Amino acid sequence: MTRTHITGSFQLMKSLNRSVILTIIREYGPISRADIAKQTKLTPPTVTNIVSELLESGIVKESAIGKSKGGRKPILLTIEAKHSYIIGIDVGGRSIRAVLTDLDATIEHQVTHALPKGMNEQTFLKVLKEVITDVLSHSSCPEEKIIGIGVGMHGIVDHTNGIALYAPNFNLANIPIKQELEGHFEITTYVENDARALALGESWFGNGKDIDHVLCMNVGTGIGAGIILNNELFYGHYGTAGEIGHTVVDMYGKRCQCGSYGCLQTIASSEALQQRALEALESGRTSILMKNNLSGKVIHECAMAGDELAIELLEETGTYLGIGIINSIHFMNPEKVIIGGGVSKAGDFILEPLKKVVQTKALTEQARNTEIVLSHLGDNGTVIGAVTIVLKQIFSRNSAVS
Fold it and tell me: Is 147 helix (H, G, I), strand (E, B) or coil?
């Protein structure tokens, strides 16, 4: 082996160990150097050297004095959250939201810009750049401290190259988001499907934390799912795993945006909910709902007020979602199912009928008892998930190299 190869291997090993130590400090801090060595199985001198470098860089700080285990009291280490900052983007059907966070994913500032109807690629990218410029202009954080931009984008996404392959809400294809943003802002950019971003955010900061196998559904204008298997995002062979909204539940059902018929999102999305409400009112159903104001939020408010039709509509949506979830439970056997997105705000109105389907239709007792919960991150799910895409590049869960 040449000197170049030896040096390269050493630097790779050191980089891996540095990332693992950072992750241990993030997950278990405040933590001592000795406990880091035990967790990572690295030698104490290796840990000491790498920690010294991390302290010098400012990303790690000494925070407190720990309890003695027979010798000197150890100095405990934590991540310096204000060392760097990240921009997270949630591209919704009608607007784009941007947040600036620290390394703990604490939101420092946020802005939202509306998206015009019938826009082309250039208009979309213009609004995307404007919302990032806006969040930067309102921040006191120096731009050199911003280490990345994460984008949660609906539809089919090539996460490797940062391209939105197909955005059905906009009827646009092959949008070079990563290339455009990196060229404009000179900040490393990562692009991910919004449901996968949500799943990643819940896995790090929400109801999926410390769980190996999670199904996270994002139910809004469309329906997608992020799948966590063995603590990692699962993409499938061509990167389309998790398109649960396009699983066919009624082959003779309504035509979907994708061109197929009877997809789950034709009966369980927010748009499907509003369409069923309109059809019910036009058929003469009595309700406090009004034809010209049928958003999911209004339907939920009317259900809270005791409106019979609104309650029925939400229960139907929960039942339909339950059908999609029971199929997923039988297929991937997750430890937990997390429901996020706009429709999830209806809470127990959809959660109870959803759980009823699972508890009556699942094959085994264990499957029937699969834990199903609402997103812990709520409205911040996709933006925090987008931030987590960047954090994932810094903090690795890979094993250290002795």
Answer: strand
